[in-house]
Amino acid sequence: MDLVLLVDASPVCRELLAKVLETQGFSVACARTCAEAFRSLGLAVPRLVILEPATDGNGIRFLKSLRQDMRWKDLPVIVLTDLSDKLTVVQVAQCGVRDYILKSRFSLAELLTRIQRHVRPGTEAPKARAPTPAETSAPAASSHLPQPPHPPRPQPVRIPPPTPAETPVSRAPVAVRRLTRDQTVERIEASTQTKTLPGVVAEVISLVNSPRGAISDVAQALKRDPVLSARILHLANSAAFISQKPRVSSIDEAVRNIGVAGVRNMVLAVGIYESFSSEAGDPLEALRLWQHFFGVASIMERLVPPSDAAPAGTAHLVGLCHDLAELALRQQFPTEYAAALELARRTRRTLPQVGAEVFGVPFPELVAMLLGKFGLPPVIIVPIEEFFERALSKQQVGLGSVLSRALRIANVYAHGLTLAPTADAPITPISKAEYRGAFGNTPVVQLDDQALWSEALMMVNMLSGAPAAVARKLSQPLIAPSRSRVLYVRHTSYCSFDPLAALIRFAGEVEIRDAIPRSSAELGDCEALIVAASRQDNPLLAQQDAGPLSQLLAERPLPFLYLSGVDPQALSALPPGSCHKLPVSLSLLAEYFSKRRAQTPVHTPAPNTDSAASLVYST
Fold first, then answer.
1. Residue pair 320/478 in contact by the 8 Å Cβ criterion
2. How far is CA 98 from the centre of its chain?
3. pLDDT for 61-105, tens place per residue?
4. Which of 27, 234, 403, 559 could form a disulfide with 1, with the two C-beta atoms 3.0–4.6 Å apart?
5. What is the spatial distance between Cα 249 and Cα 606, in angstroms, rounded to a whole number?
């Protein structure tokens, strides 16, 4: 039975949580002081510690001592506290704690979700070990973790040659320098390239998460930074914001014209961009990445209404910061980062899936380390870490915080708006179950796709001051628009909040149906056909579609795509190259639309004389 150590001076809190955890199958050890907690650690090995830092005034000292002891430095800790001051948040983050829950906003469901992230059924508890002589000789007050006397040498990761289906760069295996966990942590701690947020930006972030801070304090904080204020006024007077309103000359006027939330988002966008943008590498590639950040931030803000679980401003900030760790990896680990990308490409996996092989640390944890080093608070870090954990473990729909669930949906939808960092970005329809799991039974949000795309483009161009040639390339969507009509048949399990539909709308006029046409007459004047079938890996269901589709395409050949959860080889009856497994890449769809323009036949639609009903697509 998994043991949880509960450290809290409040007997009511200890007894309540102990009973709840025991009903969930955990064994619980309670400590009312930090001294009792240390004695408990000497008697049994817990899987997790739940800590109130205010415990007998020594909670932070207990946490620091825990991290300085090699036996317990990796022991997961969840902070459950009444303290929301900035100093406590910073001290806890510096000790590597990423789960920070305020008792005033606490729910048992959220606590159990956080516990499940650290204590997974079927895994063994870590074995406590005695420290080595080198470790016990380290000064107890040192702020650095003691290092082994002989650190292991980096080991090469062998990247296999590409499979015949891939386009090879080199068929020779590539040796990659692999880091150990300690080497990665040491480099992060020692790096001189680690960015920190400007004071005003950090203050605005703290206001976002502070139950005591009035959101109007954003303007007062901004006035203390004249350079940042000038940038905000420049943005506030841009065509995208000023519309028919008068020109503003002060921060107070900007707040009145645009609203506190708009000014707050400008402050965060400007401050984070100027802190983390880098001139290294391809400038167009870097700007596409920032365009993606701004797009996801805007979508998150529209998807997640403010609540106790997501205070005003946190959704926007989570979207804005969700891939900052990747920027840090590019700058601090350029060789290993490039090797990880190559390994992912050769093995057809993602960066999070190969990250542990190169950096010696699970990718979600690596992301949390880097974001914590930037000074971001746990309320921002935790949803991002959960987002990457879900990408690795394919968690059940509905698990995790509302911000992490929304981030997955917003990230894919941004790809559908062509606000993607690369052409390999995945696109897939969002299921109704996934949308309900994220947002409950609330009405499906409808977005202005073109306005979102333009807003992200405007922010990048204004903040970067990119040369005209680069700005022109950035303004060209990865999929060129046209006026041709596309029939999009969408399986009934999918939601109307659909990244694939958004992408098709960028490529032309789209008609959405839930039924596969029975005859060419039902195609009307459509010039292309895309079918998004169920993501279930069920070849029998897909083969039931293949017959009617084959007959339809024989009557009227036209560019066609069939997207499903089935291996394309199981659908030999359909045209070669037309079947693909979801999710698909943006580059594949761009290639399809490019070929479609060259292949679309000219035709005159026949009158619809078929009175039979269409095949409703709900299998």
1. no
2. 16
3. 888 888 888 888 888 999 988 887 777 887 888 888 878 888 766
4. 27
5. 62
